[in-house]
Specification:
This protein is an alpha+beta fold. The protein has helices spanning 2-7, 50-59, 62-69, 83-88, and strands at residues 19-20, 27-30, 35-38, 103-107, 116-123, 128-131. The strands form 2 sheets. The chain has a 3-stranded antiparallel beta sheet with strand order 1-2-3, with no helix packed on it.
């Protein structure tokens, strides 16, 4: 973020330290820091159509889309799965089923993260994976 602030002007960021040097393109210069920067938010290339961006929105996580295509700073703590997507997969009223072999997956956190544990089993009659607990 410090490099970004050094490379853009105050219209781009309140703490910007550079000077815009082109009237129509977002080109900045910070002579003291010896930085020349082009920092753009507009689609200027021929393939950057609405259809292209629609396909990218469908294939990328929201934070990744914002970072790659809108040139925005995003949190590294963005969700892998949105709450809406997760909730759409939940079947209320299910009870634990501990028959047969159970497979356990654990994601242990190490830094300001969540720890998760999921237990599933394979149902040979329906050929499905079932939540065990």
């Amino acid at each position: 973020m410090d490099l970004y602030k050094k490379a853009v002007d105050r219209d781009e960021h309140p703490e910007g330290q550079a000077v815009r040097i082109h009237p129509t393109l977002p080109i900045y210069e910070n002579r003291e820091a010896r930085i020349f920067c082009y920092w753009d938010h507009e689609a200027r290339l021929p393939w950057q159509t609405e259809e292209y961006y629609d396909s990218q929105r469908k294939n990328l996580r929201p934070a990744t889309f914002a970072r790659l295509h809108q040139n925005q700073w995003v949190s590294s703590e963005s969700s892998f799965i949105s709450a809406e997507t997760y909730d759409s997969c939940v079947e209320m009223g299910l009870q634990p089923d501990l028959r047969g072999s159970i497979f356990i997956g654990v994601d242990a956190s190490v830094r300001r993260d969540s720890t998760a544990c999921v237990c599933i089993r394979y149902d040979e009659t329906t050929d499905a994976l079932l939540l065990a607990s």
